[in-house]
Amino acid sequence: MFAVISATILERYALAKEAGFKAVETGFPFGHTLEQVKMAKESSGVEQILINLKTGDVNKGELGVTAQPGKENEFKENLQVTIDYAKAVGAKKIHIMAGKLEKVTSSNWETYEDNLKFAADVLKQVNLLGVIEPINQHSVPKYFLSDYERAVDIIKRIDSAHVKLQLDIFHLQHICGDLSYNIKKLMPYVGHVQIAQVPNRNEPDTPGEINYKYILEQLETNGYTDWIGLEYKPVGNSKDGLKWINNFGYSL
């Protein structure tokens, strides 16, 4: 999956195809109509795997209201709009972002879980998967969900095939480390995987803390056979930076 930061979201579909990708994932396409996004996706010929939940004004740091009491109706509206876009582009997964909070109380956790239960029921009706992602506090200070154990506990309690874990190895390394053990432990709950090097979130073959040749093997060994999102910031030219894929023995 592929994104070019300097291009608009509509242009990225064609650029991904040009680079050789068969599939993409995107954030919510703010500022673009459903028909515009659908046309751009279909014209490119790529498959769409995942779309982020509509979150509010990202320029103001708004990353969702899933954990905010009193905003349940806004969450439900955002979920339905995102489902409409997901169906239009054929995406089967929705990343349900939790939001940022200045202070976390028990009511935030109750609201978060209640909203996810609601989402599980709605997503079951349309056969879509919702994924929740712990995000480290270095990259996104005050993001609500930054605990893998708590995320898994919620997933277990909801007990739905339509709510699973989004496992970004970049965040896993920042939050937990011990990657081999944690990949194995978390894999039964995983619905989507993303990768980036630590600490600078660049290509997997750039200098950093993670041996991605080994980690990609571990993902496969532990049963993950679905798409892997490349949620990284290219060091230089996006297309040139993709050479790591062939160097690792894979192909687009």
From TrEMBL:
Tagged with keyword Isomerase: yes
Protein name (database record): Putative hydroxypyruvate isomerase
Similarity annotation: Belongs to the hyi family.
InterPro entries noted in UniProt: HyI-like, Sugar_Epim/Isomerase, Xyl_isomerase-like_TIM-brl
Isomerase keyword on record: yes
E.C. number(s) listed in UniProt: 5.3.1.22
GO MF assignments: hydroxypyruvate isomerase activity
